[in-house]
Amino acid sequence: MSVFLQFIFITVAIFLIITMYMTWTVEKTMQASYWLILFLVGISILFLIANSEIMFAFQLSIYGGGISVLLLFAALLAQHDDYLFVGDSIFGKIQGLRTQISVFLILAINLILLPILAITNTNYNTENSVLGDSERTVSEAFLDTARFSHQLWTEYSVVIPFLSLLLLTALLGSIKLVIREWELEELSDIMKMRYETKEDAK
Amino acid sequence: MIDATWYLGLSGFLFAGGLFGVLTQKNAMRILISVEIMLNSANLAMVAFNGMFGLGIGNLDGWIFALIVIGVAAAEAAIGLAIFLSVYRNFGEITVSNIFTLKEQEVAN
Amino acid sequence: MAEESLINLVENDTLITLAALVIVIPFLTGIALLIMRAIEIKKSIDTDTKFKFDENLTGNIGVAGLGGSVIMALIVTIQYFSQLNLTKENISHPVINWVVGDYNFLPSGTGPFKWGIALSPLSVIMMLLLSIIAFTIHLYATEYMHGDSAFTRFFGTLNFFTGSMFGFVLSSNLFMAFVFWELLGFASYLLIGYYWPKASASSAAKKAFLYNKVGDVSFMIGIALIWSRTVNLTNSGLITAPTLDYYWLKHYAQIGIEGFDMAFLWLPSLLIFGGAVGKSAQLPLFGWLPEAMEGPTPVSALLHSSTMVKAGLFLGARIYSLFFTIDLTDLSIVENSFIWFTPNFIAWIGTLTALAGGLMALTADDLKKVLAFSTISQLGFIGLALGAGGLTASFFHLISHATFKSLLFLCAGAIIHSIHKPHANLSELGGLKKHMPHTYWTMLIGLLGLAGVPLMSGFWSKDAVLLAMEESDIFGHQFLLILAIITAGITAFYSAKLFILTFLGEARYDKETVHPSPAGLKTRISLWIIASLVIIESLWWTFSIGLGQFNILGKNFEYYLGSLLGQHQSEFNIVFAIPSILAVLIGIGLAVAIYHYNMLEVLQNHPVMHKIFAIAERRFYVDEGIYWFASNPVMNVGDKFSVVDKKFIDGIVIDKVITQGTLTVADTSDKFDIKIIDKFVNLLGDWISFIGKRLRKLQTGMTPNYALMMVIGLGLILTYLTISTLF
User: Fold this and answer.
1) Among all residues of chain B, which has the CA nearest to that of C699?
2) Which H or E element spans position A5?
3) To probe the interface with C, which of A105, A114, A119, A121 has the most C CB atoms within 10 Å?
4) Rounded Cα distance, C523 and C443, in Å
5) Which residues of chain C have pLDDT under 70?
6) What are the φ/ψ torsions at residue C97 (nearest 5 degrees)?
7) pTM of the complete model
8) How do the domains of chain C map onto residue ranges?
9) Which of C357, C408, C359 is nearest to C381 (CA)?
């Protein structure tokens, strides 16, 4: 069954790359966040293959359920359309990005191939360096989850409260940043123009 | 049986992609999305490492780290979006290449 | 007539400390008084008045300093003589203890610089005599200098001088002696030039200093020769260490180390005696002593009759062994070297000085000048005895002359004080007997001693000198003896003349303006102290030498002195003394006849006498010869040098070119410097600003650019890490 898993893996990988490309190139920001959700789901599938059900659940719920919704709403609030690739032909699409692509290529080679080379040349304990055990039992899965939560609340018992504190701070901070009580006169000039044009258009 | 190095390779590729997005996008939202892509690729790598080193001895540090990263990403996204909203209110646009008021001033020599 | 006694070196810290106190106390009081003088001057300037410390205070400080020295000297003398173990048995060849205390103030071997005190009979007796005379003169001076505005300075300098004199007498080596010798010369300069606003006084001080300096140069060369020879001998292992100690030089000279024998020593001893020629006013360097009478009379009494002028001859007595180690009768040694030269030189110079001094004293009119020439003459006697080999005789005459000459000067001072004039000219005195009785009697006593009237102290000492000359092996000593006897006659003559013209007869001074007053109380006390010293000496020596009573250890005074100093000569012989007694009586008789009774006009007006007197009046042209020598050859050489110097100055003008050159070099290098540095600094600044301008463009304010830079940096770090892990 491992072949099946490998097949799934490759499919999901391609899927991820496609979704990633789409987030760059779609017209609207909202659409980009949709494609991000798909990306997140793909990542969660990979987690599932790697025998961490709990991460699969966390990824879907927190990332896909929370953060992407946040991004969606924020994108709605700040609607401003722009395009990445402008032009009809392929050459036109690449034209404005020459230097950027070259930089990307350098970084890609660096970040992908060389670390892999480094890691593969190191003598790891390869007995357990295999993910995707297809003969996994449910009890094993639950045991992993239990172990995960046990470790979370014993070894990392200090970290979780700090993380919650961090999230609380972020919440409060973002509220403070965003909140305003404004009158029409206090708006910036550009906003005034926008609101005035809309009202004028009415 | 998937070799853990495939995960690592994919993680690296996705990270590079996210990096590309961060560097080239003009819309601040899309930049944030690309940052999320990068963080996810990092999570992938953590899970892969856990599989390489930890599963045999029942050590699930990689998953825990990935969980913490998710939490941090959430906080960061919230703050970032709040900042983007403020910037949008002040400048009327969210295109990062147009916002350069912190530019180095020209010096009369 | 070589030295015979053995010397034993002894250490005694108490004695040395007391002797050091004798030197130090007058120095301390002298310096204290000079500091007080400085305070006086400062206060006078500040308050614009003539501030002066109370004369009683300063005078008492000065006298007390000397009083302390006298007490210490007495203690030292008593203790020293009590530890000399001379008995009747060993009186003819005694072993004399010398108490020596040394202090090297540099690491040994770096030079002859030692301080040390050597107590030997010579120095102890001299110290005692000096302290008593100096104390008396200080007492006298408190009254003599009364009312003088620089009273404090006088006593400060006089104490300083006395301290130096003690230091010189008690010094144990030639270096320390030389240092104090120079201090003596300096103090003498200060004291002669005491009335320095007067042109004659300041020039007299200069003359004295310069004449002394000529002697000092020869002294220094002598010391250098001896020192270098001792260094050579140390290097060749013959002696243990180079030295300038009197004791060790005596010792080495006596035991006759090869290289330190008479064949070598004639030159250094001659040169050292050259110093004595300058300091003790021998021919030809005597010209300063008459001039030195410009100083106040206590100065003349202390310095220029009894202490400083004796210093040179005292030095000669100290290094007597360097003149006389062997018998000059051993002709084989004599013929092969210059050994005979130094004693002959000293004796001839001494005799000629005595004769010249006597003749010059005949022609002088100023009372003090007569006494000055007389001092020159008597110093010639002492030198003559030293050269003839009579150490005992010369020291004997030194002691007796010191006492009566200082007495005579004190009397002269009293006379000058009483007639209230700066100079007492013989032609303007006369008939002072009834006005100044004490001075009359004390001066009589002094003059009797000076003349050498039989039974006075001067007679015995002069006779010893003549006996020394008679027994010596000096070339032509009989001729010198005759000259000495003639000089004794002349001495008697001018002493009597002085006495008659001053005290007897009719008054020749202007009775309207001059009212002679008797001497004050302190003056009289001082006069009688020294006069009583003369009387005691006369009586003692008369009884001891003449009559054979009051023998010390079975021998008379002269023999005892000879044992102490280590040199004996024949006993007094009345037959031998007859020519000198005759000369004295003839001299006194002639003087009485000419000056009291105005007889023998023919003698006075004889053309030969006139000629002699004329030459004597010009001081035998010695001074003029010195002046001529100093002005013509010396000045010519000086002029030539000054021309060279001017060439140098011109050379300096040329040097000015050089200096201009250096200036230009400095200038150009300065400009060069500035240009280079400016250029360099500007270049550096330009580069930095250029780079800055370029780098500034990186800060676009656009966030993606910053993100790109971050990523590039990250990529580079990762590249480095991976590559380093791979290889």
Assistant:
1) B104
2) helix A2-25
3) A114
4) 13
5) 1-5, 90, 105-111, 321-338, 550, 553-554, 600-605, 649, 653-654
6) -90, 125
7) 0.62
8) 340-616, 618-696, 697-727
9) C357
Place of tokens 């147009």: B98
Contacts of C726 in chain A (CB under 8 A): 114, 117-118, 121
List, edge to edge, every strand of the sheet that includes C114-119.
C6-10, C95-104, C114-119
Cβ pair C700:B100 closer than 8 A = yes
The β-bridge partners of C100 are: C118
HEC secondary structure over C75-90: HHHHHHHHHCCCCCCC
Is it the case that residue A134 has pLDDT exceeding 70? no
Give the integer Cα–Cα distance in Å for B93 and A82. Answer: 11
Task: Tell me the C-alpha distance between C645 and C477, whole Å.
Answer: 51
- From C725, which residue of chain A is nearest by alpha-carbon distance? A118
Phi, psi (rounded to 5 degrees) for C447: -70, -35
The answer to whether the CB atoms of A115 and C722 lie below 8 A apart is: yes
- Residue A169 pLDDT exceeds 90: yes
Q: Which residues contact B109 (CB under 8 A, 6 or more apart)?
A: C689, C693
Residue with tokens 């005892």, as numbered in its chain: C560
Q: Is C711 on the interface with A (CB under 8 A)?
A: yes
C163 neighbors C26 (Cβ within 8 angstroms): yes
What are the phi and psi torsion angles at C555 (to 5°)? -130, 160
User: Rounded to whole angstroms, how far apart are CA atoms B67 and B50?
Assistant: 13
pLDDT tens digit sequence for A104-127 = 666 666 666 655 665 555 544 445
Strand duo C95-104 + C114-119: pairing? antiparallel
Find residues 8-27 of chain B whose CB sits inside 8 Å of chain C: 19, 22-26
- Mean pLDDT over residues A62-81, rounded? 82
CB C458 within 8 A of CB C449: yes
Which amino acid belongs to residue C407?
L
Residues in chain A: 202
- Identity (one letter) of the amino acid at C338? F
What is the predicted ipTM?
A: 0.89
Which spans in C199-340 are helix H? 199-235, 246-255, 262-279, 288-291, 297-301, 308-318, 320-323, 331-336
Short-list A25, A79, A120, A27, CA closest to B17: A25
Pair B19, C711: CB distance under 8 Å: yes
- Tell which residue, B25, B87, B35, has the closest CA to residue A78: B87
Across the interface, of C699, C703, C708, the residue whose CB is closest to B104 is: C699
Answer yes or no: are the C-beta atoms of C220 and C175 closer than 8 Å.
no
From A102's Cα to the closest Cα of chain C, the distance in A is 12
Q: What's the rounded Cα separation, in Å, for the pair C477 and C350?
A: 12
Domain spanning B4-98 has what CATH number? 1.10.287.3510
∠C279-C213-C624 over CA atoms, to 5°? 85
Using a CB-CB distance cutoff of 8 angstroms, which residues of chain A are in contact with residue C705? Answer: none
